[in-house]
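Throughout our pipeline, every protein is held as a single compact record rather than as scattered files. Nothing more is needed to write down the fold, since each code stands for a local backbone conformation. The record that follows is passed on verbatim for readers who wish to inspect the format.
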Amino acid sequence: MSAIGDFLVRRTLGFEARLRAWGNVARFTGAAVSGVFSRDTYNSATREVIARQIYFTAWQILGGYTAFAAVLSLVVTHILANAARDVGLYDYALEFTFRLLVLEIVPLLTALFVALRTGAAISTEVSIMRIRNEMGALEQAGIDPMKLELIPRVIGGTVSVLCLTVIGVTVSVLCAHFVITGYRPWNAPSADLQLMIGKVFDPAAMAALWSKAFLFGLAVTVIPIAEAIHAPRQVHFAPIAVLHGMVRLFLVIMLIEVGMLVIRYIA
């Protein structure tokens, strides 16, 4: 009986710890969103941090991400085109590709791409700043570290995800059109592409796409930072904070994707 009691106690404590962690994420998210839309956040110092975050998050990986998006688009379009041809629906292949690849796969993989490269780096960076008491030093100097260091990273990361999503969507549309037209897009009437884009990318679809990209951008930065700023200020806890932050980040990304699918196609 004591073993069962110990097990229940451990499970209860673990559940309470997870609840506290999610509560920390929720509180930091509220503070970050409030700071993003506050005019007091923006000054020369914060703009420099934002620009640096965009440079490391988006600009440095622009070439690799563009190549990745192009290869992915070509492969997925080939698969969908062959499947549509097999069932006699090749005339709808471009629409299928736009709806699946452009509206769903590309935004999701963009968020995962940025999360793998930037989410862990941000969490590690903030953890080290806390361990070195850099944030405490800023507070003693009368500077709010939330406004100077944390919120600018959230803004930079969110803008980076939005910008990369724009590039990924554009590349995937061009690659899909290239494949569906048999690698001869110059022989296809431009009006057909314009008609299909107008049909698929209606206002509701565009609102869902950019809302999802915005939420992905917030998640990629907010969750790793929230985990890092509440981790114990000891070096050996930094990798644990990074791991926990990435696990929660991937869970939230998938919840956002599923939620947007429910809203878009079921609700």
